[in-house]
Specification:
Radius of gyration: 23 Å
Order of helices and strands: HHHHHHHHHHHHHHHHHHHHH
Number of domains: 1
Strand content: under 5%
CATH superfamily: MFS general substrate transporter like domains
Number of strands: 0
Distance between the termini: 44 Å
CATH architecture: Up-down Bundle
């Protein structure tokens, strides 16, 4: 293989009007690309979990209010729509998924490098700027990774795939608070900040290396033509893939639900340490960070359990049950104290687990040629993480953190409108079920195709005789 051929096979540009058959991949054919992309989920889970720990740490070391510390979340999640609706989505539509993966990893690494001098200078504003760049990188990765996991493989298992991949995101959110509890709250302020710089330098080195791995890896690209074929194979009377983008109303509802749900999830995790130290006796920040790690462990466990249940129960029903439980347990979290309050917060985070990836998978059902653009909107809903935490922080400063739980509770209720529609409104429900019942990419579909080929060959032989 010549050098020209070598790089040609690894071209970052893919024509969207060509069918690559990527939407018909079997489970076995999709294993390598799915494993590679799933690694990205761990990366942003780790980054997000570390951010929640830093939120409390900066309140103590820099003497800032809870509302101001939410500037970390505002910078991080405020970058998401800029990526998902802007630069990352443009690259996705004009080049392809692999190009966005490389772009996002490079931005992530750049932001981690910029964080180094900002932490050294004790500049909260500068660190927020670095987090904004990191947010652009992770927003780019989510813009490509979530839809890629959803459409890479048999459509009927889309929700199952994305929830399993997102479970590794949950593992990352567990590792980060545990690490933070040892490197932030058990050292002097100066030494703790020095430890943070080492963490971000390590992140930069690893993500640059991973970007190189993605460049040299050959993974299937999924084009608009592939998604249009998939939509046609699962068409129903409620199919809207042929309509212009502005009339994809199910997508816009999913985006609204994502904004409300994600904002509530981020707010609860961001102030979890504040919450547990205020409601529970003899609980400092270091122990609070360990409790946060346990809560994130419950979150990750919920994703694995939810993924298992989805193998036997329709994902839309599991989604409705889990988000309903978020509302149910968030109510007593406002007034409960001691271990009872901690248990309520743990329960909320357990049932949050499958909501984000399931909104992505269901929201992208039947978009056809609008899939890439639509994924940008749903991921852009993560902007809720820049809206709800400051509101919760403001209420916490005026009253206390337990009382501020009413803010994410209200957003959970607003998000609940989407699973209600997916389960009880035919225009939503039938499209979701059509994809759950299709045999595209399954062994059954392959056996049918092989049988047809064999029959045609047999018929050809008989005619020849």
């Amino acid at each position: 293989m010549g050098l020209k051929t070598f790089f040609a096979r690894r071209s970052l540009r893919t024509r969207d009007d060509q069918t690559t058959k990527a939407a018909e991949l079997t489970f076995r054919e999709s294993i390598y690309p799915l494993c590679l992309v799933t690694l990205l989920f761990f990366l942003w889970g780790f980054s997000y979990g570390l951010l929640d720990t830093l939120n409390k740490h900066f309140q103590e070391t820099l003497g800032i209010t809870k509302a101001r510390s939410s500037g970390l979340q505002a910078a991080y999640f405020g970058a998401y729509p800029l990526a998902s609706l802007g630069h990352a989505n443009w690259i996705l539509r004009h080049f392809g998924y692999r190009a966005v993966f490389i772009w996002g990893l490079c931005l992530y690494a750049l932001g981690a490098l910029i964080a180094f001098p900002c932490i050294q200078a004790h500049s909260f504003g500068g660190f927020c700027a670095a987090i904004f760049i990191i947010g652009n990188g992770l927003g780019s990765l989510e813009t490509a990774a979530n839809p890629y996991i959803t459409v890479c493989g048999p459509p009927k298992y889309a929700e199952l795939r994305i929830n399993i991949s997102q479970a590794f995101n949950g593992i990352g959110t567990v590792v980060a608070p545990v690490l933070g509890s040892y490197v932030l709250f058990t050292f002097s302020d100066d030494e703790a900040l020095k430890n943070v710089t080492y963490i971000y330098l390590s992140i930069a080195a690893f993500t640059f290396l991973l970007a190189i791995v993605f460049f040299f890896s050959i993974i299937p690209e999924i084009t608009d033509a592939d998604m249009e074929y998939q939509a046609q194979e699962t068409t129903t009377e409620y199919d809207s893939s042929h309509l212009p983008f502005r009339k994809q109303y199910r997508l816009f509802h999913a985006t609204f639900a994502q904004l409300c749900y994600t904002g509530a999830q981020i707010a609860i995790a961001g102030y979890f340490i504040n919450y547990v130290t205020e409601i529970r006796s003899n609980t400092g920040s270091a122990l609070g960070a360990k409790f946060l790690a346990g809560a994130q462990g419950a979150f990750a466990s919920g994703r694995f359990l939810g993924s298992f249940v989805m193998r036997f129960v329709r994902p839309r029903k599991v989604f409705l049950a889990f988000l309903t439980m978020c509302v149910v347990f968030a109510v007593p979290a406002v007034v409960a104290r001691e271990d009872a309050g901690l248990s309520m917060a743990y329960a909320v985070m357990f049932f949050e687990s499958i909501c984000f990836p399931t909104i992505v998978a269901l929201g992208m059902r039947g978009l056809g040629r609008h899939t890439k653009r639509g994924s940008g909107f749903i991921v852009g809903g993560v902007f809720g993480g820049a809206i709800v935490p400051p509101l919760m922080g403001a209420v916490a400063d005026m009253h206390d953190t337990p009382t501020s739980f009413v803010v994410p509770l209200a957003f959970f209720v607003a998000a609940w409108s989407y699973p209600a529609c997916v389960n009880f409104v035919p225009w939503y429900k039938n499209v979701a079920d059509a994809f759950a019942e299709t045999d595209v990419g399954t062994d059954g579909r392959l056996n049918a195709v092989e049988s047809k080929v064999m029959e045609e060959k047999k018929l050809g032989v008989e005619q020849h005789e």
